[in-house]
Every structure is written in structure tokens, then in C-alpha cells.
Amino acid sequence: MLNFGIKDVFDIVIVASLLYYIYRLMKESGTLNIFYGVMAFIVVWAIASEILDMRLTGTILDKFMSIGVLILVILFQDQIKRFLVQLGSHRDWRFLRKIFHHADDAGQDAEAHRRVMAVVYACMSMAKSKTGALIVVQREMPLDEYAKTGDIIDARINTRLIENIFFKNSPLHDGAMIIARHRIEAAGCILPVSHDSDVPRSLGLRHRSALGIAQATDAIAIVVSEETGYISIAHRGKLETRLSTTELEHRLTTLTGSDTAQAI
């Protein structure tokens, strides 16, 4: 006789919640196909081994299950690394960070706001002159491998410096600028390009690169269009276009505030 009690209900709820949570995070990190593939394999294994009692098929699938974790780590190490970093930095866990870290004082908040406004003013100026720009702001996931593709700057975040780097005659204007650890870390960097078919054809390589880095990492990518002067922002695999400077300031302040370790 099958005994089904309150403990089993909790067990099902916990497993269902865990699967849903993993599904949500993998969807945000762009690795949802891995989740579907793993779930399909588990369903086939459960049906063959537990329900239909197919011994030969079940034995083969059991062997695959025993080494499945190792295979996944080898094949999808970059995606798993990205997923684990996003899991640890997810907004639902921020309360733990607040317990172990003291609140920033007024001076730190003022300096963080100055850095945000330096980027906003630079983007506003470049938008008016239709100067193309691509600025990437590091959050939890390190961008060192992308910074190494460009020239290391390691300078204080400054509006005029940003404008000079993206000036049309500058040798670094075609690449991306990376801001990390409250400084302009590098410029002229090469980013992964998104091949998402949903991106409008009117958007160029800068926008696809911004979306590509937003799909590969948790970084924030800001684009100033050379053709239209419009400002766009990419984050968590999504691209928002035609932002005003007020909207850009709000997005940067929200995404790089004290809850996210003040990326800028």
C-alpha cells in the first residue's frame, strides 16, 4: 500500500520549486536548451527504469546518469559557470549580502552617483553628436578575458575621457570600453556577437555585440548609435532601445546600486 503523507507533499513542493527556480535562472542566462535536454533525458530514464521496468535500456541509461554530471561539466563548463555565478548573485539572495556587509556611507553613495552621471553625461554628449560608442559595465561576473582583447586603460571614470576614447579619429573608438571595479579598465575590446534572429536588421554590430555580452555574462552594455544617436542598453539577454538620458540614469542607478556591489 502506498503511503502518502504531508512529508511527501513537502518533498514534491521543494523539488518543483527548485526546478522552477533553475528554469528561471537558466532562461535568464541563455542556457535554457540545456535545461530542456537534461529534463528530457531524466524523464526518459525514469519511464524506462522505474515505470516500464526495461532492464536493458534502464541499465544503459543508469550508466549515462552516473557519468552525466561529469559530461555536462566538460561540455557546458562555460554555461554552468555563468549559471552558478548568476545563482549566487541573483536578487533573491541579496538579503544575505546585506547581513554580512555594512551599508555604504553617504560619501560612497555620492561617489557612486558621480560615476554613474559621468557615464550618462558622456552618452548624452555622444548621442547629440552621433558618436558611436559601446560601454560595458562589469557586475558579478568578471570580464577580464574580454578586457585582455583591448588596451588596458585603468583610469578614473571621467566624462571627457570616455568621449575622447570614442572620438571618431581615436584608434580605440571601434571597440568596446569595459568599466570594472569603479574604473575604466580597458578600451578597444572585442565582444561576442549575438546571432539572435529577433534583433532588428536596422541595428548594427555594436548592438549585436552589446546583446552578445549581455547573453554571455551579467554585464550591462550601453550603446550609442552612430547612425541615429539613440541610446540603448542590454542586460540579461534583453535589449532596450531609444532610451532617454533620464531612463539611462535610472537603469544604471538601479542595476549598479549598493545591492549589486556598485559595479560602476
Describe this structure in words.
The protein is an alpha+beta fold and 264 residues long. It is 53% helix and 15% strand. The protein contains 10 helices and 7 strands. It has a 7-stranded mixed sheet with strand order 2-4-3-1-5-6-7, sandwiched between helices. Strand 3 and strand 4 (183-189) form a beta hairpin. The longest helix has 23 residues, at 6-28. It is elongated, with a radius of gyration of 23 Å. It starts with 5 loop residues before the first helix and ends in a 9-residue tail after the last helix.
Task: Sketch the topology as an H/E string, one letter per element.
Answer: HHHHHHEHEHEEHEEEH
Strand order of the largest sheet: 2-4-3-1-5-6-7
* Overall mean confidence score, pLDDT: 80
Task: Specify the helix fraction band.
Answer: 40-55%
* End-to-end gap: 61 Å
Structural class: alpha+beta
Largest sheet: 7 strands, mixed
Report low-confidence residues grouped into runs of 5 or more.
none
Tally of DSSP helical segments: 10
| Shape label | elongated
Radius of gyration: 23 Å
| Strand portion | 5-15%
Q: Oligomeric form of this entry?
A: single chain
In short:
By secondary structure, this protein is α+β, with helices and mostly antiparallel strands.
